[in-house]
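Quick start: read one record
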Amino acid sequence: MTSTPAKAGRKEWIALTVLLLPLLLVSMDMGVLYFALPFISEDLEPTAPQQLWMMDVYGFLLAGLLITMGALGDRIGRRRLLLIGAAAFGATSVAAAFANSPEMLIATRALLGVAGATLMPSTLALIRNMFHDPAQRRTAIGVWTAALTAGATLGPVAGGLLLEHFWWGSAFLLNVPAMVLLLAVGPFLLPEFKDAAAGRLDLVSAGLSLVAVLTVIYGIKEIAAEGVAPLHLVSIVVGLVVGCLFVRRQRTIANPLIDLELFRNRAYSASIAVNVIASIAMLGSALFNTQYMQLVLGMRPLEAALWSLTVMPVIMVALTVSGILAKRVRPGYLIGAGLLLAVAGFLVMSAARPGSPLVLVLAGAGLVAAGVLIATTLTAEMILTAAPPERAGAAGATSETGSELGGALGIAILGSIADAVYGRDMRDATLDGVPADAAHATNDTLAAASATAERLSGQAGDQLLDTARHAFTHGMQYATLSGAVLLTLAAIVATALLRGVPVAVEAEAEAQAKTEAEAETDVRAQAAGSAASVEEEPVRTH
């Protein structure tokens, strides 16, 4: 007889709210520096390369260490790693807030990335340990996904509000109270779990994974920012070669960081792929949405960030409806539907022009976000349930690494398409009254065109700005249509690969029945062995 998984109680749901604290702050810290950078530049006077490192080093180390930290949590205990990371994140935030030189701020941002890498996989893996009932676990993962998105959205808002009243370091001190609360209540509310048979952490594998992820993401981001260059291509090739060495080592060592056998599971491997493509769509949508509001509609950054919050009700309704449907509809079909909803969002965004109402872009961005989150909530659940409980940390970290890679690809691929169309339109445009050197400077970005237009007087500046805004929305149209094509193909492939995956409740029941059948077989085998030994005993005594 199949037993029903134990349902989580009040303690587990309160513990989930505690787990959301580090998740919100890690995702908020990805964007909080955008608002603080002008104030930091005035105070610390960093060079241009130092400014870039301040912005990027956090995300680079966060992405590069996720796999290692996920595997480490499986070995030393997920709660222990989470609390260690929380203490480090809080302490380093204080150091960053009071940094008195560019070098110190870069170093503290790097340490924040290391600490952040301990928090994300631990939170997802602990959800796997706390919520055994499929429906409750699906709800918890949905909340986890929404918190990750909310943190990225709230980061600019919180940063902007703080910087209007305090000095730039206050944006980092925002982390401290939440981490103190997590350290105070985490030991009492969160369960501990670790894999006693995992063995020692392979430091060579950890180094290979770090180098592979860092070099690939660095190359992709630099191509997106500066265009294709030999150094950037070499960086990506080096990363891919090191990645192959990492995979080869995982096949030969006794205690790998990643169990490559998991990728033979179609649900697991397809879910990882969906996460990568979904992140491409999410970051591409955010890139265009932000630039459209600030550079086309002329909004201030804080105003644009506040308007971005208006899509949250759409997202919450979509996640609620998908959670209800997930009890009856197979996940493959819901994932395909979610990706198609994101396709609809891109199609809406492709219709935006300089004179379009704000609601058009917000509606498109909301549909993209809702569709992506429907898909990634379901894939997160399949990734966790496909992996054994003792490897949930490494499995979740692999998923997060794929998401980070997808985000870099989204900015690089969709951003490059938009930039190419923008540059072509600006080169072909006839700009009366605009000096040749000024016109050439506007060919790269709409931001450069806006800055140039402010320096020009009268009709020439207005014409330049109007031309640049039309060129930007034309490039945005091509990029969002390309994103729609990519997501349509992903929806078709994901549905085909995952249509055989049963509803979560059915899958849990089948797994439980299989486990009990195997246990019953073992009991019968032991009983048969005992009977045989009893029959043989008289023969041996004569």
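The first helix runs from residue 10 to 29.
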